[in-house]
Amino acid sequence: MPHLVTIDNVDMRYGGAAGTLAVSGLTMKVGKGEFAAVVGPSGCGKSTLMKLVTGLHIPQSGVVIVADKQVTKPVSIVGMAFQNPTMLPWRTTLDNILLPLEIVERHRHRLRTNKKEYVEKAEHLLETVGLKGFGSKFPWQLSGGMQQRANLCRALIHEPELLMLDEPFGALDAFTREELWCVIRDLHAAQGVTIILVTHDLREATFLADRIFVMSARPGKVLKEHAVPFARPRDLEVMYEKAFNDMVHELHGEIASARVVA
Amino acid sequence: MSAVTENTTPVKPLAQRINWVKLAPWLYTIGLFVAWELLVIALQTPPTILPAPSRVFQAIVQYWSPIWKNSLQTLYTTTVGFAIAVVAGLAIGLFIGWSKAIYAGLYPLMIGFNAIPKVALVPILVIWFGIGAVPAILTAFLISFFPIVVNVATGLATIEPETEDVLRALGAKKLDIMLKVGIPRSMPYFFGSLKVAITLAFVGSVVSETVASNYGLGNMMSSAQSQFNVPLVFAGLLMLAVEGIAMYALMAWIEMRMTGWAHRSTMSQ
Ligand SMILES: Nc1ncnc2c1ncn2[C@@H]1O[C@H](COP(=O)(O)OP(=O)(O)O)[C@@H](O)[C@H]1O
Ligand SMILES: [Mg+2]
C-alpha cells in the first residue's frame, strides 16, 4: 500500500531550545485510504502530531511527508475537525460549510461562478451526515451533535485526501457519539478518504480504525502499532464481541503502563 | 412580556392591562422629578442653589432659542468627534488586534494614554487650534475612541485558536483570517462599544466648550453660572441628558440591527 503520510523520526519542541519537548523520535506511516487512530495518555503530543501532519508546525528534526511531498508549510489537501466545532455564529450552517472553499486556492476563484454546484455538494454532504434541510439554520440553533456533524461537512467540502480528527466526539453524549461513529464509518467507506483520528476513547479507536498507534507519555513516540482485525463494514454490535473487548483491554493496559513510566 | 390575555375574563382591570415594564422608565423619571420638586419645597432651597424642576422647565421655555441653538452646536461637535473616533478607533483597533505581538506591545501604551485626563489636553488643543468647535470636536474624539479601539482589538485578538488552525491548514493568509473571522467576530464588540463611546463623547465636548468655546451647552452653562442663572444651568444639564439618552438609544438600536446573531448565540464558546 502506498503511504499518504510518513512521519520519520520527528522531534518537536515548543518554545525554543529550553521549551517543552512534545514528541521525540516519532515515527509512523499511514497508507492511502486507511483509517488510523492514535491513542495515548493525555498531554503525550497527539494534537502536536495533528499539527505536524497538517503543516501548522514544522518539526525541528526529522521529516513529515504527506502525499509524496515534505511538509514545510500548511498542506491544503487536509480537512480538520476538533472537539470544539468552531462554527462561525454569524454564518448559516451552509455558509459555514462553504468557508474552506473561500480559502483553498484551487476553489476560491471558482466559487462565485460555480456557486450552485458547490451548494449542491454541501447539501449532499449535509444529507450524508443526517442534517438534510438544516443548511439555512444558524449553528447556535443546532445541538452539539448536529454542530459536530456540520463540522465534519466543513472538513470534507474541499474533498481533502486526508481527514484529521482531533477528539471530535469528546464533548458528546454516548448515544450521539455512537451515531457519529457510524457517520464517520460510512463517510470513510463511501469517499475513500484517508483518516487519522486522535482519541482517548479506546472503543472508538477499535470500532473505527484499521490501525491503532499507541503513544508513550510525553515526549510522545509510537510505542506499539495494532492492526484491527474486524471485517468491514462493522456494525455497532461488534463492540459486544469478546475479541473486541480483549483488544480494548489490551490497549488499556498499554496506555496505563505508558502513564506509569512517565 | 405583554399582558396575559385569558378568554374567560374579557375585560381585565386597568392595572393588569398596562405593560408595567415598558412604562417603568417613564414612571421612574416622573417620580424623580416629583421627589426633586418636593425636596425643594420642603427644604425651601433658593433657586440659586437648587431650582425645582418646574423652575427648570420654565427656564427651558424662557430661553428656548439659545438653548436650542447651543444644543444643536453640542450635538454637532459631539457627533463629529464621535464619528472620527469610530473611524479611527476601528482602524487602530484592527491594527492593534492584527497580531498578538502588536496587541501585547501597544496595549500598555493605550492604557497609559487613556489614563491621561483628557481635560488636561484642552489647553494644548486651544494653543494648536484656537478656541471654538475644533478643540471640542477633538476632545470628544480623544475621550471616546479608546473604548472602541480596545473592543475591536479584543475581538480580533481572541479568535479561537482552533478556528485559526482549521483555516491556516487550508492555506489561509493572515488577511483571509481577519476578513472571514476576525472582523465579523469583532463587530459585536465594536457596536457594543459605541454606546459607551457616545456618552463619553458628550463629556469631552461639553468639558471643552466650558473652558474653550463661545458656543455650545458647556459654554452656555458656564456663562449662565457666572450670572447666577442656576435654572438655566440645570436646563442645559437636562438638554444634555436628553441628547445623551437619544444618542445612546440610537447606538443600542444600531447594535441590535447589526449584530443580532451575537445576542442569540453564546459567542465565546
Ligand atoms: N503551543 C504550545 N506551546 C507550548 N507547549 C505546548 C503547546 N502545545 C502543546 N504544548 C505542550 O506539548 C505537550 C503535548 O501537547 P498536545 O500535543 O496538545 O497533547 P495531547 O493532544 O496529546 O493531549 C503538552 O505537554 C503541552 O503542554
Ligand atoms: Mg489534544
Keywords:
A: 262 residues; alpha/beta; Rossmann fold; six-stranded mixed beta sheet; 10 strands; 35% helix; B: mainly alpha; MetI-like fold; flat; binds adenosine-5'-diphosphate; binds magnesium ion
Written account of the structure:
- The complex is a heterodimer of chains A (262) and B (269).
- Chain A is of the alpha/beta class and 262 residues long.
- Chain A has a single domain, classed as P-loop containing nucleotide triphosphate hydrolases (Rossmann fold), CATH 3.40.50.
- In chain A, 35% of the residues lie in helices and 23% in strands.
- Chain A has helices spanning 46-54, 93-98, 105-108, 115-128, 144-156, 174-191, 202-208, 242-261, and strands spanning 3-13, 21-31, 35-39, 61-66, 69-70, 78-82, 162-166, 194-198, 211-215, 222-227.
- In chain A, the strands form 2 sheets. Chain A has a 6-stranded mixed β-sheet with strand order 6-7-8-3-9-10, with helices on both faces. A 4-stranded antiparallel β-sheet of chain A has the order 2-1-4-5, covered by helices on one side.
- In chain A, helix 7 packs across helix 8.
- The radius of gyration of chain A is 18 Å and the shape is globular.
- The model of chain A has no long low-confidence stretch (mean pLDDT 91).
- Chain B is mainly alpha-helical and 269 residues long.
- Chain B has a single domain (64-259), classed as MetI-like (MetI-like fold), CATH 1.10.3720.
- Chain B has helices at residues 14-17, 20-43, 53-62, 64-97, 100-115, 122-129, 133-157, 161-169, 174-212, 216-226, 230-258, 260-264.
- The complex binds adenosine-5'-diphosphate and magnesium ion (MG).
- Magnesium ion binds at residues 46-47, 166 of chain A.
